[in-house]
Structure formats: structure tokens, C-alpha cells
Design goal:
Number of strands: 9
Radius of gyration: 19 Å
Mean pLDDT: 96
Strand order of the largest sheet: 1-4-5-6-7-8-9
Largest sheet: 7 strands, parallel
Strand content: 5-15%
Distance between the termini: 33 Å
Helix content: 40-55%
């Protein structure tokens, strides 16, 4: 583990002050340099599958802000595309996929091994990025977790509340279990390829974890993530894994206990005191500033960021947002946030 990489030090269990910082969706539409490359690519999917352009936008926020990590520029829905789903991104209305409606649709999907060829450009992007990063900057790969990816595949798009996926799960349990199993296997292959291509950390995004509860939460959020973590630990010992069970709330402790990730990313609804009480004292946490605070005049930004820094001072902590940065974010506010984190020192009693 390179001693000069603060993110890797924290993920190994060390407290680093000030903590390392990167932000979710840090390469995106709030940056003029990103918008320029996006125009050059023509459309979002072409950008994801153009390694040289995707590498450039991966590096852009590190170049501008000096973040402690670069995260691969890609999308969680590239995986269902590799499995045979149609995929398009429509400006202003988000992604659209062909819908999974029954067991025949699940049977028609390709096997997990399809990710190796179809998503080879993603690995190529990582190989281009790695040698171009500053010495202290870690490289993060990622994928969506099976439940979250399944919700998009079943609805054909993102839907608040996930009613189509919940109905499919309850009415067609055999087909649903088959889909979750396939996505789990494919995610393992995909992330393993990313690690082989140079990712030093990988992150699992379970963005719709909070839409499940009780036994369903354990069966379709905790256990698939645990299988992915376990297999990656077996194949790539020493590669840390961050898991993001968004809006898991009171179920965070259950997720931590079952999933076995090295770090738990938190959404903005989780207060530091709640996380400290619900998670093991030595568990690394990541987060969890509200991205809305980066819009407009940034009122409340310093107070909220300092509260998070103070709240997690006693454990390994990676400063981040609690969800992705929005296109409306002000660059000046991001610059200010980085200064706040870099200048922070723990309070002494």
C-alpha cells in the first residue's frame, strides 16, 4: 500500500487528519471541461465506451480540485447492457432500458462472462488513467449492486419507490432470484476485470437499498453484496471495497455485519452520531454532505462540512457527499469545500 495515498491508508483502518476527499459523480456536467468532451463524444454511451475520452473526464476533477481519488467514468447500467439489455440515455429524462417482465426475459439475457468482452473498453479506460494520476491519488472502480441494477432492468428506467421491481419480486420470485443471481455473478466478473486493469479500490452502489426492509433487505441487499465482497476478497486480497446502501437508515448495522465491506458510504440522512452508534467503532465511513449545499451561494456549507468532520473525527473517515454532485453545483463551492476539508483539524479537549 503506497504510504502517500491517504485514501488507501484510511481504508486500511487508519485515521488520517484531515481526511481524504473525493465526491460522487465528480466528473460531470457541472464542469465546463466535461461538457466539452461530452460534445466531442456525441452521446453519453459513446463517451463511456471511448477509453481515451473517458480517461480524460475521469482525470478532470482531480486535475481541477486535487481530490485524493479518481473514480472511473462509466455508469452502473453498462452491466445490463453487456448482458443484452438495450440502453439509451435521453437528455433530461435519464436512462432507458428494455424491460424485464417475466422469466423468458431473464432466460434471454447473456451469461455473466459476457461482461469481459463487451465492457473491455471500461478496463481500457482504467489502464489509461492509472499512469496519468498524481502519485498520491487512488483509482476507484465501481458497479451497481444487484438489487439496484435489477430495479432499472425491471422498470426500464429509474422510478421512485421501485414499485415494478417490488411487484416482480413478489409475484415472480423464481425469475427474480434468477436475475439477482446473474447480476451478482456478472458484477463479480466486472469488478474483477476493473481491479486487474488497475483499480485500487472498488465501490458498490446500492442506490435503492432503502426501498427494501426486513428479510427482503437481507436477502436482496445484504447477501448479494456479501457474495460480491467475499469473492473479490478471495480473488484480490488486499483490494478494499466501499459499499453504499443508500437510505438504509436503521438497517445500516445489519448491512455492515452481513456485507463485510471495508467502508460504508452514508447518504445525507444519516447523522454522524447515528452512524457512530449503529456501526462498529473501527469501521471506515464515507460521506456524507448534502449535495444541495454546493448549489447557489453555498449558505451553510462550512457549518455542515465541519459538523461531519468533527462527528467522524474518532474513526477512519473519507469525506464525500451523501449522493452525487448535481449539474447545478457551483465550482466555487466545490473549491471552497476542498479548502474546508484540507484546513480542518480535530478539536482538542
Amino acid at each position: 500500500m503506497p504510504a502517500e495515498k491517504p485514501l488507501l491508508r484510511v481504508l486500511s483502518g487508519e485515521r488520517v487528519n484531515p481526511p481524504p476527499i473525493w465526491i460522487m459523480r465528480q466528473a460531470g456536467r457541472y464542469l465546463p471541461e466535461y461538457r466539452s468532451v461530452r460534445r466531442q463524444a456525441g452521446d453519453f454511451l459513446s463517451l463511456c465506451f471511448s477509453p481515451e475520452l473517458a480517461a480524460e473526464v475521469t482525470i478532470q476533477p482531480v486535475r481541477r480540485f486535487g481530490f485524493d481519488a479518481a473514480i472511473l467514468f462509466a455508469d452502473i447500467l453498462l452491466l445490463p447492457y453487456a448482458l443484452g439489455s438495450s440502453l439509451s440515455f435521453e437528455e433530461g429524462s435519464g436512462p432507458r432500458l428494455s424491460r424485464i417482465s417475466n422469466r423468458r426475459d431473464v432466460d434471454a439475457l447473456r451469461g455473466a462472462e459476457a461482461v469481459h468482452q463487451t465492457l473491455a473498453p471500461v478496463s481500457a479506460t482504467l489502464r489509461l488513467v492509472k499512469p496519468r494520476l498524481p502519485g498520491g491519488t487512488a483509482l476507484i472502480g465501481f458497479a451497481g449492486s444487484p438489487w439496484t441494477v435489477a430495479t432499472y432492468m425491471i422498470a426500464g428506467r429509474g422510478i421512485p419507490g421501485q414499485a415494478p421491481a417490488l411487484r416482480f419480486m413478489r409475484e415472480q420470485r423464481v425469475a427474480f432470484d434468477q436475475l439477482i443471481t446473474l447480476l451478482t455473478r456478472a458484477t463479480i466478473e466486472y469488478l474483477s476485470d476493473q481491479i486487474n486493469a488497475g483499480a485500487e479500490v472498488v465501490k458498490l452502489f446500492d442506490s435503492w437499498a432503502g426501498s427494501l426492509g426486513g428479510a427482503d433487505f437481507e436477502d436482496y441487499v445484504c447477501k448479494p453484496n456479501a457474495r460480491i465482497v467475499s469473492e473479490l476478497n478471495h480473488r484480490h486480497p488486499g483490494t478494499p471495497i466501499i459499499a453504499f446502501p443508500r437510505q438504509a437508515g436503521a438497517q445500516l448495522g445489519t448491512f455492515e455485519a452481513v456485507a463485510g465491506a471495508d467502508c460504508i458510504a452514508l447518504d445525507p440522512s444519516v447523522r454522524p452520531a447515528e452512524a457512530n452508534a449503529g456501526l462498529g467503532a473501527r469501521v471506515c465511513v464515507q460521506g456524507n454532505l448534502d449535495p444541495e449545499l454546493l448549489i447557489g451561494d453555498g449558505a451553510g456549507l462550512a457549518e455542515a462540512a465541519t459538523s461531519i468532520l468533527d462527528g467522524f473525527a474518532g474513526r477512519p473517515h473519507i469525506f464525500n457527499l451523501g449522493h452525487g454532485i448535481t449539474p447545478e453545483a457551483q465550482i466555487e463551492n466545490v473549491e471552497r469545500l476542498v479548502r474546508i476539508v484540507r484546513d480542518w483539524t480535530p478539536r482538542t479537549s
